[in-house]
Automatic annotation (TrEMBL):
Lineage of the organism: Bacteria, Pseudomonadati, Bacteroidota, Cytophagia, Cytophagales
InterPro entries (UniProt xref): DUF4293 (IPR025635)
A Pfam family per the record: DUF4293
Domain of life: Bacteria
Name of the protein in question: DUF4293 family protein
Annotated keywords: Membrane, Transmembrane, Transmembrane helix
Residues that span the membrane, as ranges: 58-77, 89-106, 126-143
Keyword Transmembrane helix recorded: yes
C-alpha cells in the first residue's frame, strides 16, 4: 500500500536528494579581492576570478544524489516485497553516505582553490544527505515493523 508512513519518508528522501542537485552546497568569499567560489552538485562556479584549476569530477555528487532519489522512488513501489525494500534501503544508505562523503571531499578541494587561510561556509543543501539518512532509517524501521506484523499474523493461522 502506497499510503504507508514509510512511503512518505521515502518520498521526502527523494525530494531531499533532488533539491540537493538544485541548490548550492558550499560557498567561499574572499573579502579583500571580492572573489567568490560556489560549489554545486555539478561543479564549481567562480565569480570575479578565473575558473578554479581543480580537475575534480564534482558531477559525481549529482550522479550519487540522483541515483539515491531513483532508488527511493523505486523502493516506494516495491511495497509487496518487503525484503526487496530492505535491500534497496541498504543500497540507498550506501549511496547517501557516498554522496555526503563526496560533497565533503570536493568542498575541501574548493578550500584549497581560493585563499586557503579563509574558511568557506557549508550551505544548507550540504546537510540534506544527513536528513536523507535519517528518513531512510525511519523508512527501514517501519518496513521491518510491517514485516514483523505479517509474520505474527502468519503464526496465528
Amino acid at each position: 500500500m502506497i499510503q504507508r508512513i514509510q512511503s512518505v519518508f521515502l518520498l521526502l528522501l527523494a525530494l531531499c536528494m533532488l533539491s540537493l542537485v538544485a541548490l548550492p552546497l558550499w560557498h567561499k568569499l574572499d573579502g579583500l579581492t571580492h572573489q567568490e567560489l560556489t560549489m554545486t552538485a555539478f561543479g564549481f562556479d567562480a565569480a570575479n576570478m578565473p575558473a578554479p584549476h581543480t580537475n575534480a569530477p564534482v558531477w559525481l555528487i549529482a550522479v550519487l544524489a540522483l541515483a539515491s532519489a531513483a532508488v527511493a522512488a523505486y523502493e516506494i513501489f516495491q511495497f509487496r516485497r518487503r525484503f526487496t525494500q530492505l535491500k534497496l534501503g541498504m543500497l540507498n544508505l550506501l549511496l547517501l553516505v557516498a554522496t555526503f562523503g563526496a560533497a565533503f571531499y570536493f568542498s575541501n578541494q574548493g578550500e584549497a582553490a581560493l585563499a586557503p587561510k579563509l574558511e568557506g561556509q557549508f550551505q544548507p543543501a550540504f546537510y540534506l544527505p544527513t536528513l536523507g539518512l535519517m528518513l531512510n532509517l525511519l523508512a527501514n524501521r517501519f518496513i521491518r515493523r510491517d514485516e514483523q506484523l505479517v509474520r505474527s499474523a502468519d503464526r496465528l493461522r
